[in-house]
Amino acid sequence: MPPRPPITHFLCLPLITPTTRPQWAASLARFTAETTSPSTPPSLSLPPKAIRPAGAIHLTIGIMSLPTPERVAAALEYLQHLDVSSILRSIDARAPNTMRHVKFKGLRAMQAPEKTSSLYVAPAADAEAVLVPFCEMVKEKFVAADFMLAEGIERRVKMHATVVNTIYAREKGGGKRRWGRGSRKIDARGVLREWGEMEWAVGEVGRVAVCEMGVREVVLEGGEGLGWAYREVGGVDLFGGEGEEGEEGDGR
Questions:
Q1: Which helix (H) or strand (E) holds 170?
Q2: Which of 37, 44, 135, 216 is the most core-located residue (most Cβ within 10 A)?
Q3: Each residue's pLDDT tens digit, 124-149
């Protein structure tokens, strides 16, 4: 079996816009404060570095190996010529209206709640019913065009905005071992009970974008300080240029 090619980029639906950034930032700040305080009960506690920054919030469609500038440019050209607006409307003619006001509420575990490494927020059911088939259709086209890795193509796309991932949590002192002395799993049952009705943000899901792997420190839109985000290398609007634009700058 040939070795797995390096993962360099991913295709996603960015969730951070000028309207939603303050909502996600405020929600994550509250979540962080209440789950990482020294006074937080163990059943509600999380490793601080496992909580994702607002700029990293997105919905993944699929992962890609684009190791050269030419491959990146080819993938972006393919995306530019893909009529994502028509794909969206083919699922539901009212889909553009649904995508303009998507609510993100609650908290779910990626694995069994008592032993999970990731917690995520899903879009409201009406939006999820549109986004899942849309993302599956886009993913199939990118796989067929040889821009996206085919692994997991038989699995249904899961709409998940990751807010906790223990892979990013390291032991105090900067060692190489992960939080929990090598274990990436946490018992999240208490956290899920406490935050199961949390409303994180409401806003537009209006772009499909190619982003580089790896969160990095970037200048926020308008030069309003620094933040952490994935760098968007290109994207298209879901509404034919009529939607709210993503955040410009070194990392969108």
A1: none
A2: 135
A3: 999 999 999 999 999 999 999 999 98
